[in-house]
Amino acid sequence: MALLETQALTANYGDFQALFGVDITLERGETVAIIGANGAGKTTLMRSLSGVLQNAPEQIQHKGTPVGALPADTIMKRGIAMVPEGRRLFRSLSVEENLVIGGQHKGGADFGDRLDSLIARITGAPDPALLAGGHDGQGYWTLDTIYELFPILRERRHTPGTALSGGQQQMVAIGRALMSNPDVLLCDEISLGLAPVVIKDIYAALPKIKETGASVIVVEQDIGQAMRVADRVYCMMEGRVTLSGRSSEISREAIHEAYFGATA
Amino acid sequence: MIWVDTIIQGILLGGLYALFAAGLSLVFGIMRLVNLAHGDLIILASYLILILVTATGMNPFVAAIVAAPVLFALGWLLQRFVLNRTLGDDILPPLLVTFGLSIVLQNALLEGFSADSQRISLGALETASVSVGSLSFGVIPLLTFASAIGVILGLNQLFYRTGIGRAFRATSDDATTASLMGIRPNRVFATATGIAMIVVTISALYLGTRANFDPSIGPARLIYAFEAVIIGGLGSLWGTLAGGVIIGVAQTLGAAINPEWQILAGHVAFLVVLLVRPRGLFPRGND
């Protein structure tokens, strides 16, 4: 059973269909890269996986449980954490508070979930709390271990999150997602808008993240970067997967064709 | 000396307006929801305290403590099952629904309690006063002002020292990203409205003990609350205290010059602040 997989995943924004039957899998311990041009559907895929967009339940399976229709907060409590595109730090929160909030609601049903599940039983709606199981949120990542991974954040922990440089903000966004000790980490365009040397620093953290037990899906526009970090690559175009395979086995020509839809 | 006394009375009256405004500001700050029924909810809370006092003979302060959890639950349910459905990109639905709620509440109270004006009696405390030199302060106005400061201090502690406060701020910044942190925005909103209703209960206690009230006076309290919030700067809690004090002082000064000018002077002060500082005295950077 794959850790996370999509089966014929479709997604719509109103009348506009953004995904047309996408199949991807993530096995335990893997890093998978999703590459593709702008508008290929990469971010839509990530929004679906993280629960920001809701899909048919069986189109996304986490540890064999259909989770496609669950809301983002329940997905997160199941152990799927997201580093959103553009970092999206909370501007009213300090660096440390941004990190803390990432781990504040981790792991299983809380009081609100239990209350909701009671309401659901009365109204006959699907029970959100029952579906939230599967993860206890315990593990390696705490404030201290995040500060070990990104020491600069300790120095700046009382600064408003949005006052940091782009690279430091990305570190906070990654740390914030790790604070829930996820078993799946979704990273959407983490190198976007950053200087190459900063991107290198950010990706240097990836081996440590994997070592602690998280499997990773990265969305990347930089093909070279994606091929270096990922075990397997999916290339998307116009809402479909046009190429997939082990990154060591895919030729540049094949990627070029899958990426642009034509041979060079 | 009479002017010093007048200004101090105005400042103390400002505490009441700040209490009206704090609940409104709390809800607006977190979910950008303008609750037009806020004044009527205060009146509803006053009636609840009145019922508890007349039915059981308990002290009004005790009655307010008993009423607070009931009103918290009412606010939670109202937000969870009615107001959350109106939130979205369009600001009109929440305005229309809370306006409707205001009318429903006024008429339900009229039906239940008639148009007779009522008052919650505090006995000897009503006329008790403290003298400092030649000045004399009513104990109730002093308590009102102290409660306003207490409420604002408490809300600030809640916002900046607790997990739920962190969730409030995060959800207010970006509800979608907050949901990626395991936060269900609708639940956060329900809790926030519940807490606002506790502030409403405290406002109702002082409203009902300081002056007469009847089912129709809610909208006027809403106006004062609005003015205090806007003078202070949207979403700023200490700003609501400043706003309340400015309206309170303007009203008492106006009344001292000519009793007919009391209400007018408050509104004029509001207009002047709006002209000079359209974003209020302490605007939040990101609004």
TrEMBL record, chain A:
CDD domains: ABC_TM1139_LivF_branched. The keyword DNA-binding does not apply. One of its GO terms (molecular function) is branched-chain amino acid transmembrane transporter activity. The keyword ATP-binding applies. Keywords: Amino-acid transport, ATP-binding, Nucleotide-binding, Transport. InterPro entries: AAA+_ATPase (IPR003593), ABC_transporter-like_ATP-bd (IPR003439), ABC_transporter-like_CS (IPR017871), BCAA_Transport_ATP-bd_LivF (IPR052156), P-loop_NTPase (IPR027417). Residues 4-263 form the ABC transporter domain. SUPFAM superfamilies: P-loop containing nucleoside triphosphate hydrolases (SSF52540). GO terms for biological process: L-amino acid transport. It holds the Pfam family ABC_tran. Belongs to the ABC transporter superfamily. This is ABC transporter ATP-binding protein. It comes from Sulfitobacter aestuariivivens.
Automatic annotation (TrEMBL), chain B:
InterPro entries: ABC_transp_permease, BCAA_transport_permease. Keywords: Amino-acid transport, Cell membrane, Membrane, Transmembrane, Transmembrane helix, Transport. One of its GO terms (molecular function) is transmembrane transporter activity. The keyword Transcription regulation does not apply. Belongs to the binding-protein-dependent transport system permease family. LivHM subfamily. This is Branched-chain amino acid ABC transporter permease. It is found in: Cell membrane. It is a multi-pass membrane protein. It comes from Sulfitobacter aestuariivivens. The keyword Metal-binding does not apply. One of its GO terms (cellular component) is plasma membrane. The chain crosses the membrane at residues 6-29, 36-55, 61-79, 91-110, 130-155, 188-208, 228-249, 261-278. It holds the Pfam family BPD_transp_2. GO terms for biological process: amino acid transport.
